[in-house]
Amino acid sequence: MSLSERSVTAMLLRTDPFRELDRLAEQLLGSVARPVTMPMDAYEREGAVWVHLDLPGIAPDSIDLSVEQNVLTVRAERPAPEVPESEMVTAERPHGVFRRQLFLGETLDVEHIEAGYDAGVLTVRIPVAEQPTSRKIEVSRAEEKKEIAG
What we know:
By secondary structure, the protein is of the alpha+beta class. It contains two helices and seven strands, in the order H-H-E-E-E-E-E-E-E. It has helices at about 5-10, 15-30, and strands at about 40-45, 50-55, 65-70, 70-80, 95-105, 115-120, 120-125. The strands form two sheets. The chain has a four-stranded antiparallel beta sheet, covered by helices on one side. Strands 3-4-5 form a three-stranded antiparallel beta sheet, with no helix packed on it. Strand 1 (about 40-45) and strand 2 form a beta hairpin. It is elongated and about 90 Å long. The model is unreliable at about 1-5 (pLDDT under 50).
């Protein structure tokens, strides 16, 4: 595993085996009540982690991103189609509320996250936080106090 692969893994996704089982079950058993998760790609480039989430057919106004305690939550909704005076013959496109959480490492700058939506893909840019530089701290000596006899 290269340094950049390790850093992206450490910065973005902490593996949670139970979440991995949940995600696998959602992918295999997704339903209208619990839609399939949003497929995602993530990589590090130009001092940031870039995340692309597929959200086809989602209105931009229904996308909500929030960060709380280094967890980025992406929520989007696609309502069921309204077809008055019709009988649905086939309904394979998932609808409902889609939600995905990304656990962000301490090395990411959650205050400067940017997001854009184009052609059904939500792109999130999470900058890498500037690493604090070490500095030497000078230790001063207390001045000797002279007692003045009076």
